[in-house]
Amino acid sequence: MTAPTAIRIPGFRGNLITPDHRCYDDARAVWNGAVDRRPRLIARCSGAADAAAAVRLARDRGLEIAVRGGGHNVAGTAVWDDGIVIDLSAMRSVSVDPVKRTALVQGGALWADVDHETQAHGLATTGGIVSHTGVGGLSLGGGIGWLMRKHGLTVDNLVEAEVVTAEGEIVHASTDDHPDLFWALRGGGGNFGVVSSFRFALHPVGPTVMAGPVFWAAANTTDVLRFYRDFIADAPDELGTIVRLGTIPPLPLVDRDLRFRPAIAVVSCYAGPVEAGERALRAIRQFGTPLVDLVGPTSYVDHQSGIDDTVPHGWHYYWKATNLAGLSDEVIDILAGHASRATSPRSYAAVFHMGGAVARAARGSTAYPDRDVGHDMSIDAVWLPDQDDTVASVETAWAREFFDALEPHRAGVYVNFLDADDGEDRVREAYGDDTFRRLADVKARYDPENVFHHNKNIQPPRIFADR
Ligand code: FAD
Hints:
Blueprint: E1 15-17, H1 24-28, E2 41-44, H2 48-61, E3 65-68, E4 84-87, E5 94-97, E6 102-106, H3 111-119, E7 123-124, H4 135-141, H5 148-151, E8 158-164, E9 170-173, H6 179-185, E10 194-201, E11 203-204, E12 208-217, H7 221-233, E13 239-247, E14 262-270, H8 274-286, E15 292-293, E16 296-299, H9 300-305, E17 316-324, H10 329-339, E18 348-353, H11 357-360, E19 375-383, H12 389-405, H13 424-446, H14 461-466
Parallel strand pairs: 2-4, 3-4
Antiparallel strand pairs: 1-2, 5-6, 6-10, 7-11, 8-9, 8-10, 12-14, 12-15, 12-16, 13-14, 13-18, 17-19, 18-19
Helix pairs in contact: 7-10, 10-12
The protein binds flavin-adenine dinucleotide.
């Protein structure tokens, strides 16, 4: 390995963090504490020009490149052993144009940054449900969230992007400029370059929304899910819901004696007037005997960050993911049976209700492929850093067995929920053959040497053919 201090990037204005730097361990840490990689250099960029200089240096030196947005991906692809990390974490500015209703967002921003600035104008765009998730990776994979049924996926709201290509050039991509690249960026992940900024369309949202979770005892899971299936069948687009199967997390408003009790939750956000949200949510809140009902008028910003502390940085995570066409009786039985087998009180499964504007966008309009599925789902095994390997094995096995049981009902997968052991077959599954091939063609134009491959990789056809 080259001596750490030997690397300099001509013209670089950000911070270069080498293994001898006092911030190195913090800088190489990602959200998933189970990921422990040691890059040779972390190039913390101050802007697109720095990212371009870092790409050129990496290519000159033959260094592996990883790109870090929010550092939140469960697979930890934002860092790589012995390579260079193009770290955008210092690039978090968000600038709102309230007249045009757009936001210009730097590539390392978190959703908390976007929500904070856009809600100052009563505006929002579809973002992730945990506010410490990065805009970069989430947007490039598709972007699902509370607002998607009303306003589309994050990628449906992308207006343009500034991209540092594999050649180290800075280009703009939109429906007019580099339209093939623009199409690929909207679902194809970090395969096509470093996105230094995104411009998103915004919509009036809140600032107060009717939102929150209702929890029932886990013993009621089957009944709740059957009721929920009917409840969402004619849900308005404004209503975003997620089912969470696990325990009641220790949220501030939850009584101590209820914390970590096995439970099923329906978590909601109504992206419209509060009174209409109250009406839309009445039936689900009145179903059975909830243990806790935390639904109420709340600020959209607070709702967006409401579960942040249930998935903090540094805990250890392992995910399995699948999409589901719908909630048949068989699927409901599997969800109810397997959710209760997790031994860690922090492990859970999340089932996102899709449809609405997501399904109405034309298939193929973006590289996000699965617009017709009923639900995106992730099974999230969670354990603490100081717990031993046995706990890790047990929780990991729980997620795998849960996933295996769903095999007959699987309907694709959301690429951003794939973990490190999900290989090329699952990336193909995520895109389907047609989208995968089209992405590979764009890859051949913009990154024929597969410089950006520490991601859920789309190989250019030439490299694929050579193997
Ligand atoms: P990073 O780990 O920084 O990046 C992941 C990859 O994305 C990188 O390897 C790189 O290839 C690419 N990348 C990131 N930024 C850039 C950039 N600016 N330019 C080029 N490439 C880039 N997804 C949803 O859609 N909706 C959700 O509600 C949601 N909730 C989540 C909650 C949690 C707790 C977690 C862990 C994940 C969640 N996700 C959600 C998944 C999320 O979309 C992915 O984890 C995503 O990769 C996170 O983006 P990031 O920038 O933080 O990740």
